[in-house]
Write a structure and sequence with these properties.
The structure is a homodimer. By secondary structure, chain A is an alpha+beta fold. The first copy, chain A, is built from four helices and seven strands. A seven-stranded mixed sheet of chain A has the order 1-2-3-4-5-7-6.
């Protein structure tokens, strides 16, 4: 598996699984009816953010975007989002992208990584982030309208990247 | 005190205290060097969001913006931001704006209100939201670079607006 910076040309391969994941309605609070252009503009980050693709045998099988979670006085905390082609689950693509993002954030000097909205019933993702060292800071009750389960919670998850002064 | 929808014309009175609060660096993770136009575009919400001003004796003394915290499958949770002219603290303006936002969100059918980033050392705000019924869901450690205190935590705060099914 290769992980490299995404280009605009990669969007044609990202968008099919992005749209499938969006339409399934199990993991992301994306705007309904998003066009391909709107989705690309959201997903392909600009500096200081960054978007990467995971490639196996020349095929884009996943993507991650990363950058500061907030501007200004919150910009020392990173955040990230991940999409893996549902047909390629179980191949370690999410894990590889997660490890890549953690390394990127550490090298870029971020103090920590925060995920703002991990669907609590997305157990594969929750376990994966916990395996990478993330812990659940708190859970906003019934904040996600899951397409199958209805209202479920959204976890805020957090991974420190350096020793705390305190 | 009157609270009414903000108009573009109100910006001339909002921006001086908005800029002062931004420059003080104690409460918001706003982009550094934000122009007045950029700040107005951020603060004056469009439908389904809404921005209001608080007026005393014809003078704009505070403002609040509100709307869905997330799009799509998270859009049943509201969020809001508040600015009160620092020269008019202690007059109950934040409380009145907070009560207004809670009523608005309830009537608009939101299930709950979430604040994503309340600076933990902003004790006046934390106490005010707790007085309105908000509770702290969790605190992201050292996520805010306070201009005087350095790294302090950001609370996620939450107020349910209806009985939970579960």
């Amino acid at each position: 598996m290769e992980i490299r910076d995404a280009t605009e040309a990669d969007w044609a391969q990202i968008h099919p699984f992005y749209k499938r994941i969006a339409d399934e309605g199990r993991t992301y609070t994306l705007p309904p009816g998003e066009t391909s252009d709107e989705a690309r503009s959201y997903w392909i980050e600009r500096v200081p953010g960054r978007t990467v693709v995971a490639i196996i045998d020349g095929v884009v099988v996943g993507s991650a975007k990363m950058g500061p979670n907030r501007p200004g006085r919150g910009s020392h905390i990173a955040t990230a989002s991940f999409m893996v082609d549902p047909d390629r689950q179980g191949e370690g693509i999410g894990l590889a992208l997660g490890q890549h993002v953690v390394e990127w954030a550490r090298e870029a000097g971020y103090h920590a990584i925060q995920f703002n909205a991990v669907v609590e019933t997305n157990e594969g993702a929750v376990r994966l982030w916990q395996r990478l060292g993330f812990r659940i800071i708190g859970t906003v009750p019934e904040a996600f309208d899951d397409a199958e389960l209805g209202l479920v919670g959204l976890h805020v998850m957090y991974l420190p990247l350096r020793e705390r002064a305190g």
